[in-house]
Amino acid sequence: MRTTKLLVFLSLVTMSSTAIADWSANVGYNSEYYYRGLFQKRSSANGGVDYSKGGFYAGTWIADVGDGLEVDGYFGYGLELADVELSAGFTGYYYTGDFDDTYEELNLSAAYGIASVDVAVGQYDNFDGPTQDYTYYAVTLEKNGFFGRYAGFSQDFAGNYVELGYGTTLSGVDVAATLILSDEDLIGEDDEAFVVSLTKSFDF
Fold first, then answer.
1. CA 144, 28, 32, 35: dihedral to nearest 10 degrees?
2. What is the pTM of this model?
3. pLDDT digits (tens, 9 = 90+) for 64-99
4. Which residues have CB under 8 Å from 111's CB, separation 6+?
5. How far is CA 62 from CA 25, 28, 56, 126, 185, in A?
C-alpha cells in the first residue's frame, strides 16, 4: 500500500470552489500532545482546514512537534445506513524535521449509538530501516460528553492504551480533559498523563 503525498494534495486542490459554505478551519492547543497513546510534545499548538460535501471529506492538520511540524493530509467518504455510520478514507502523516518519518494508512470506521470502532492499516517508512506495517484498532464509548477508549496496535507495532475523559463547549471553545494510560508494550514502560485540550472551530 503506497499512496503518495501528491494524491492527498491533489484531492484538496481539485475540489469545487463553489462550495464555500462547506469549508471550515480550527486552531487548538494541547497541554501535552499525545497521539494513539504515544507522547509527542509538551505544550503543542495545532490548526487545520477541512472540506466536506455530501459524504466526501478532506482536510489537512498541522501540529508543533518541537523538531519541525507534523503535517497531516486526509480524505474519505462516509455514509449512514439505517442507524449505522460508516466511513473509509486515507491519512498521511508527514514531518518537516527529523522528529519522525512518514506514515500512510487506510482508515475504516463504524459507529452505532454511543459506540464506535476504528481500524487503520498502515505503513511506516522508518527512516533508513526497512518499512514496517501496522494495524491500529480502537473501540470508543461516548455519552453526554464523557468518553472512554480502548485501543492498540498489532503487526510490527505493539501495545495498548486507555483514554478516559470529558469534553464540552465553553463560549464557543471545545474543551476536553483526558486521562491516558499506556502500557509497557507500547512505549517501553507504563505511562500515564492528564491532558487538557482547547479547540476553536470556524466556518467559512
1. 70
2. 0.87
3. 999 999 999 999 999 999 999 999 999 999 999 999
4. 84, 85, 117
5. 12, 10, 21, 21, 28
Within 13 Å and on the Cβ side, how many CA atoms surround 164?
A: 4
Phi, psi for residue 22 in degrees, rounded to 5: -95, 5
Residues forming a β-bridge with 121 = 106, 135
Q: Looking at the DSSP assignment, which residues form a beta bridge with residue 172? A: none
DSSP readout, 75-135?
EEEEEEETTEEEEEEEEEEEESSSS---EEEEEEEEEETTEEEEEEEEEE--TTS--EEEE
Residues in contact with 155: Cβ distance below 8 Å, sequence separation at least 6, in sequence order: 132, 133, 134, 135
Q: Which three cell numbers stand for residue 194?
A: 492528564
